TrEMBL record:
Belongs to the bacterial solute-binding protein 5 family. Residues 95-429 form the Solute-binding protein family domain. Its main location: membrane. It comes from Jatrophihabitans cynanchi. The keyword Oxidoreductase does not apply. Residues 1-34 form the signal peptide. This is ABC transporter substrate-binding protein.
Length: 520
């Protein structure tokens, strides 16, 4: 069951103290209000109550779901409002029906999907089994090299439309995670895609979701209501997604009324929200980590990597930087995941043991971070320096960071990975399986023994049996230490008090079908 993770690089948490907001934030708020006032914003000031503006912490990437870079959760959340998937990942981290109303397994390698009738794309094209087949085959086309090609091609051997509303997939072996990978394959209209091609589609995407793409201007994406959405007519007429990387700017925009929802609010800042704003919190599914390039000095030495792990005090970071709103990690999984091992010691903080190794490392270390993760990066840097490692932080622009890390060209980097699937497989396939594609090099780690373990767990359907295999996988990763798993934070949103019908999602999506502004 080789499958992709929810999003190629779901991050950003820049934990900036509330004390840092100050007068600069007020100026930013005034500026944003002026920019988004009567024509493109609206926030709490929306006259008709049917415009919602969402402030995002990260850059918006490609809107064609197949093109890399696919972006983090922020971009995926936008696409989730434009496109449908066959199945959807529920907030309980379990697949639920979407364009596929039901599915069955006549045998271990055969999956039959009964598709939803009467669905149309917003350009009028009908959705049916042939369209679903086209979408699967598009990803499987080696010439296109779309996102998730390597994962899907490793498990699917055949796809066919049995009849107009029945799709059948045949896998190469048992594939317990097939539903999850389908959850992340957003469906595009066949005829329109063939007519315009990938590049033009990316500038004017068409889907069958609750909202239609309107336009993209700079760091803003505008969506309008799909009145004919099969799931019901959305209450909002317009949704605007706007990138606002700085926490201070997002909070200022929220409190001024320039935006209605702001994602990634640090815990200490959340306690300072005043006026017509509130916070909404949900348990998170992101693993923040320090990745080390195993082909670059000094991290080509496993002993150095293990010492770096010992130098990072995850308990202190969770308590002090996240004000208790995060789960400290001692392994490459959080507690709610299948694959988490409660009975192993895991990583432990031991500055003395780390220092015994790191003080002898002569190679200078540069840790790449994005601006959004700079504060967490500084906290980790301080601990590494305290253990004797000669290291520094290098802040890299978002898209350059993606390009560099995906190609495995960094020495070390700090980022996060969303595991909305709730399954360790989703993480290890993208980061540690040697068969991953060229957009997933990251730490350049590979291990034939780990590959064998992955193959074994992917051919096993029983969760208890997979959990036992995952125990061995976790031990391998802890021993080889390509990562320092740090924390899984809660997801904290700032929300205008007059927003109704919206609750936060642990996987970072915005379910806006029943959302309103200023209406009860």
């Amino acid at each position: 069951m080789i499958r992709p993770k929810r999003e190629p690089r779901p991050r950003r948490h820049r934990y900036r103290s509330a004390a840092a907001l100050g007068a600069t934030a007020a100026v930013v708020a005034v500026t944003l209000s002026a920019c988004t006032g009567s024509s493109s914003g609206g926030g709490q000031n929306s006259a008709d109550g049917q415009r919602l503006v969402i402030g995002l912490s990260a850059e918006i990437m490609n809107l064609d779901p197949g093109l890399a870079p696919t972006g983090g959760r922020e971009t995926i959340a936008i696409r989730d409002s434009i496109f449908d998937t066959l199945v959807t990942q529920g907030d309980e981290l379990r697949p639920k029906p979407r364009l596929a109303e039901s599915w069955s397994n006549p045998d271990a390698r055969t999956w039959v999907f009964k598709l939803r009738k009467g669905v149309k794309f917003t350009n009028g094209e009908p959705f049916n089994a042939e369209v679903a087949k086209y979408n699967i085959e598009r990803v499987l086309d080696s010439k296109l090299q779309l996102s998730y090609y390597s994962q899907l091609s490793a498990i699917v051997s055949d796809v066919k439309a049995v009849d107009d509303m029945t799709l059948q997939l045949t896998t190469k072996s048992a594939a317990p995670g097939l539903l999850t990978i389908l959850d992340y394959m957003q469906i595009v209209p066949e005829q329109y895609m063939k007519k315009v091609g990938d590049k033009q589609f990316n500038t004017a995407p068409i889907g069958s979701g609750p909202f239609k793409f309107d336009k993209r201007e700079g760091d803003q994406v505008y969506l309008t209501r799909n009145d004919d959405y099969w799931g019901g007519k959305p209450k909002l007429k317009t949704v605007v997604f706007q990138t606002i990387p700085e926490v201070s700017a997002r909070v200022a925009a929220l409190q001024s009324g320039a935006i209605n929802i702001a994602n990634e609010i640090p815990p200490d800042v959340a306690k300072t929200l005043t006026g017509d704003t509130k916070t909404e919190t949900v348990s998170g599914t992101r693993i923040f980590f320090l990745g080390m390039n195993v082909k670059a000095k000094p991290f080509d030495d496993p002993a150095v990597r293990r010492a770096v792990v010992q130098a990072v005090d995850t308990q202190s970071i969770a308590k002090n930087l996240y004000v208790g709103e995060a789960q400290p990690l001692n392994q490459d999984a959080f507690k709610a995941m299948l694959g988490y091992q409660p009975n192993i010691p895991g990583n432990t903080f031991d500055q003395a043991a780390a220092s015994a190794v790191l003080k002898n490392v002569t190679t200078p270390v540069v840790i790449d971070v994005t601006q959004a993760d700079a504060t967490l990066g500084q906290a980790v840097l301080g601990q590494l320096q305290a253990a004797g490692l000669k290291a520094q932080i290098q802040t890299v622009e978002d898209s350059a960071f993606d390009t560099k890390t995906e190609a495995g060209q960094e020495q070390a980097y700090l980022s996060s990975w969303g595991v909305a699937e709730g399954d360790l497989d989703a993480l290890i396939i993208r980061h540690f399986w040697s068969g991953r594609d060229d957009t997933s090099k990251y730490t350049n780690y590979s291990n034939p023994s780990l590959d064998d373990q992955i193959k074994q767990e992917q051919s096993t359907v029983d969760p208890a049996a997979r959990q036992k295999i995952f125990a061995g996988i976790m031990q391998t990763l802890l021993a080889d230490a390509p990562w320092v798993p740090i924390v899984t934070p809660n997801e904290i949103y700032g929300v205008s008090s007059n927003v109704t019908g919206w609750t936060p999602s642990p996987i970072g999506l915005f379910h806006l079908l029943n959302t309103q502004v200023g209406r009860s």
